[in-house]
Amino acid sequence: VQGNFMDLADFPGLKELGLRETSVTGDIRDIGEGDFLALETLTLPHGVYGGMGYEFQHISDAPDIAMAVNSFKKQRPSLLIESWHASLSEDSPDWYG
């Protein structure tokens, strides 16, 4: 599976979106209030900006993603966002480890 995960927002009855091991791309911040209304479970791969295991290039990128995930979760309190986590890339100029 490839392409932008937002192309699937056109399926209003979609209840589960599990794209973990795919090459899907996109940006979690593109999810609007009217997208994925029936969704109960969401898993986005690291290739999606803000997806599971996403590696930030700058510490300053983190708040935007956290706010997007939080906003989406507030709009849909019963939504299960599976295994969401992110980290700062070791290649980041902000890395000091």
Descriptive labels:
three-stranded parallel beta sheet; globular; two-stranded parallel ribbon; 14% helix; 97 residues; alpha/beta; 1 helix
Helix count? 1
Order of helices and strands: EEEEEHEE
Instruction: Give me the oligomer status.
Output: single chain
Helix fraction, binned, reads: 10-25%
How many DSSP E strands?
Answer: 7
Structural class: alpha/beta
Largest sheet report: 3 strands, parallel
Amount of beta strand: 15-25%
Q: Indicate the mean pLDDT.
A: 92
Write structural notes for this entry:
- By secondary structure, this protein is of the alpha/beta class.
- Helix content is 14%, strand content 19%.
- It has 1 helix and 7 strands; from the N terminus they run βββββαββ.
- The strands form 3 sheets. Strands 1-3-6 form a 3-stranded parallel beta sheet, with no helix packed on it. The protein has a two-stranded parallel sheet with strand order 2-4.
- It is globular and about 45 Å long.
